[in-house]
Design goal:
The protein is an alpha+beta fold. It has 8 helices and 17 strands. The radius of gyration is 18 Å and the shape is globular. The mean pLDDT is 96. The chain binds zinc ion.
């Protein structure tokens, strides 16, 4: 279990539970517009925290974010999970990692009040469930699982048409939550408690949301996959090949960057490697991170 990601303003704390971190894909495998000569010209390509030049792979992470507020413990984005049958993706298929043990060094599974998925891709819903006696059961027995309405309606319909949608993750990671009565479908602007609310950011998926933490005018955002890699701060026009609507995804990134730049607001993305949390500054040609 990692220490606090960053000292957030107000009464909130955020920690990472890391399922994977390291060199992952060639830049243009994730971001089709990041052609080699264009990627090499970026600041991110010169930064060993974000790019391994020797193997031409960007460094990424899969982590959940544990947010502790004065009232609740909220787990955001539950990664890939163990024992999930994902034969089309070798990184995801039948994993056997220590995610749950790491999480439990910080919090008991029964202490999680809310599980919240920014969107319902297979790398954000996996630990919603775990295998018990051959059945998928909710990993967090006392939690309400909050899912945005737009996202639920889209993926439920898509899965009905093709059960292999999203690597079949609705069947093993969503359906058991509904069957256990622990799913709560909420509006895309839902306020969980004072200062903790969902903010719609469609583009990566139709119902993609971010989580806004606000206290006394200071704001932080847990942004899920609104950005996948730090290079997108300087090249927000580069969408991932997994984005549902690339132009909406660009719009969501630009809107976020304009909102948070030069304000001191922290952003915490779902796949940024260490140090993960960043603040944004603007300059004449766009945006940059400022640690
Ligand atoms: Zn993701």
């Amino acid at each position: 279990m990692s220490a606090a990601i960053v000292d957030l303003p107000g009464p909130f704390s955020a920690r990472r539970v890391i399922e994977f971190e390291g060199p992952y894909l060639a830049p243009d495998h994730l971001l089709p517009d990041a052609l080699p000569e264009l990627f090499r010209a970026t600041h991110a390509a010169q930064d060993g925290r974000f790019y391994e030049a020797a193997t031409n792979r960007i460094i990424m992470a899969n982590h959940a974010v544990l947010i502790v507020t004065p009232q609740s413990k909220i787990l955001v984005d539950t990664c890939i999970g163990n024992s999930k049958h994902r034969p089309r993706n070798p990184h995801w298929h039948m994993r056997n990692g220590p995610f749950l043990e790491d999480l439990q060094t910080a919090v008991a599974l029964t202490e999680i009040d809310y599980v919240l998925c920014t969107h319902l891709h297979g790398d954000h819903v996996g630990w919603n469930t775990r295998l018990r006696d051959g059945r998928w059961v909710p990993t967090f027995p006392c939690a309400k699982y909050l899912f945005g309405r737009t996202e639920v309606e889209f993926w439920r319909t898509a899965t009905a048409a093709d059960p292999e949608t999203n690597h079949g993750s609705w069947t093993d990671s969503m359906q058991p939550i509904f069957e256990a009565g622990q799913a709560v479908v909420v509006d895309d602007t839902h306020e969980i408690e004072q200062g903790v609310r969902l903010v719609p950011a469609p583009g990566h998926t139709p119902g993609n949301v971010m989580i806004q933490l606000e206290h006394a005018g200071a704001i932080s955002y847990v942004i899920g996959d609104t950005m996948h890699h730090p290079v997108q701060i300087e090249r927000p026009e580069w969408s991932s090949k997994f984005c549902w609507d690339k132009s909406l995804s660009v719009k969501a990134r630009n809107s976020l960057l304009e909102t948070v730049s030069d304000t001191g607001a922290w952003i915490i993305p779902a796949h940024f490697p260490t140090p993960t949390a960043l603040r944004i500054k603007s300059h004449a040609h766009g945006f940059a991170s400022c640690g």
